[in-house]
Amino acid sequence: MQADLLIVNIGELATTVGHSDRPQCGSELGKLAIYQDSFLAVKAGRILALGPMAESEQYRGPDTEVIDAEGKAVLPGFVDPHTHLVFDGWRERELAMKLAGKPYLEILAAGYGILSTVRATRQASLELLVQDAKQSLDRMLLHGTTTVEAKSGYGLTTESELKQLQAARQADQEHPVDIVSTFLGAHAVPPEYKHDSEAFVDLLIEEMLPAVAAQDLATFCDVFCEQGVFSIEQSRRILQAAKKHGFKLKLHADEIVALGGAELAAELGATSADHLLQASPAGIKAMADTGVIAVLLPATSFTLRSAKGADAAAMLEAGCAIALATDFNPGTCPTESMQIVQTMAWQVLGLTPAQALAASTINSAHAIGVANEVGSLEVGKAADFVIYDAPNLDFVAYHFGVNLAQHVFKHGRQVVRAGHLCYSEI
Ligand SMILES: [Zn+2]
Question: How far is 212 from 194, CA to CA, in rounded Å?
Fold first, then answer.
């Protein structure tokens, strides 16, 4: 059959195979199919075939666009399953405070941190939020990310949370990167509820969740479960209510203090628990037993100057599925690049490039419920892939701090050419 698009002379094509129905768990992580000297054929936005170069000719027809990869590496587009995409209010001015050793919870208590972004986001127009989000999506695409999750959580009023989610929906419609939305109204307790967080939890449950559900603005509901933010009991109340509205669940769990967030995620059947630096052995085991995906955010550990990140080795030992994300946000992790996360994965977490790739593609696709469609290069799946200016997979994690993504394809359409955006508004 004639392909619409044929990528030839691929130096190394690396992807997971056969994990669209379940993530790679424990010691399975990083099992890849690697094709050297290979081709990739695309038809109607989907993968038609791939394999050794010798088999490529049968897909070449008079109308086939042929691109020579010149011996470079082809990998699936990254799926970034944890971002705080939509906001106004960057916070570079907090760097000096952090360097002076002020703990994050103290910065938060002093009115900086997330609350300054909340002030800016509340004031921002929908148009400005969409424009800013699309600028970040452009950077993600340029670095090889083709699908992202996007959380609300900088509005913290019904109106401004809906505004953030509407901005994500509009950005999804107007930009090639696909967005899966998460309602994170329980990201922080807003200043007006500082002395009565229970009343804010009531507002979340009685007003915000039904409003988000009524407009079908989010697939997931997430809670920042942390000391001084939302307790285990409050997180349980919010997530149980969310479940009744049909949301799938996520949890910011055990990042700073070991509260038992991993255990709660397992108890509620959450899709993922994220951060997990302080997760207990029992919590890790409970997650493995119930299939909760551990979304790890090593770039956040790096910027927070944490001595070590989450205990990835213990999670793999217990049989957990690990996924990786940027945690893109204006405070603790202002990067859109999943390439730098590949580097942080070996630096901070001790994962190999193959493990990091699986955790950033098929497993991260599972963490946001899109693994049937994206996350691996297999016949029939969406043709979301990247040609890197690198000879192989390992090189992408190894040669860090620069952008190696050269050509990016979304649904079989070239959206980045020679390191520059080339899509027109769709
Ligand atoms: Zn987060």
Answer: 23
- The rounded Å distance from CA 250 to ligand 1 centre is 10
User: pLDDT digits over 5-55, tens only?
Assistant: 999 999 999 999 999 999 999 999 999 999 999 999 999 999 999 999 999
Rounded to the nearest 5 degrees, what angle is found at the Cα of 35, between the Cα atoms of 413 and 29? 95
CATH number of the domain residue 411 falls in: 2.30.40.10
Separation of CA 82 and ligand 1 centre (Å): 6
Ligand 1 centre and the CA of 277: distance in Å?
13
**In a shared domain, residues 179 and 295:** yes
Q: What's the pLDDT tens digit per position in 181-240? A: 999 999 999 989 989 999 999 999 999 999 999 999 999 999 999 998 999 999 999 999
Query: Measured in angstroms, how far is the CA atom of residue 165 from the centroid of ligand 1?
Result: 16
> Of 321, 342, 367, which residue sits at a domain end?
367
pLDDT digits (tens, 9 = 90+) for 375-421: 999 999 999 999 999 999 999 999 999 999 999 999 999 999 999 99
Looking at the fold, whether 290 and 382 belong to one and the same domain comes out as: no
- Say whether both 37 and 148 belong to one domain: no
Using the mean position of ligand 1's atoms as its centre, give its distance from the Cα of residue 126 in Å: 22
Cα of 327 vs centre of ligand 1, distance in Å, is 5
Residue 361 is assigned to a structural domain of this protein: yes
**What is the distance between the alpha carbons of residues 260 and 124, in angstroms, rounded to a whole number?**
36
Domain, as residue range, for 115: 79-367
Ligand 1: centre distance to CA 187 (Å): 8
The pLDDT of residue 110: 76
The mean pLDDT value of the chain amounts to: 96
pLDDT of 309 higher than 80: yes
Are 69 and 218 found together in one domain?
no
Q: 209: CA distance to ligand 1 center in Å?
A: 19
Instruction: Measure 138 CA to ligand 1 centroid, in angstroms.
Output: 20
CA of 335 to the centre of ligand 1 (A): 13
For ligand 1, the distance from its centroid to the CA atom of residue 84, given in whole angstroms, is: 6
Does residue 426 lie in a domain region? no
Classified as helix, coil or strand, 80 is strand
Could you tell me the distance, in angstroms and rounded to a whole number, from the CA of residue 105 to the centre of ligand 1? 15
Strand ranges (E), 81-226: 145-151, 178-186, 220-223
How many Å lie between the centroid of ligand 1 and the Cα of residue 274?
A: 8
Separation between Cα atoms, residue 419 and residue 410, nearest integer Å: 15
Contact predicate 133/66, CB 8 Å? no
Number of domains in the chain: 2
Count other Cβ atoms within 10 Å, centred on residue 388: 25
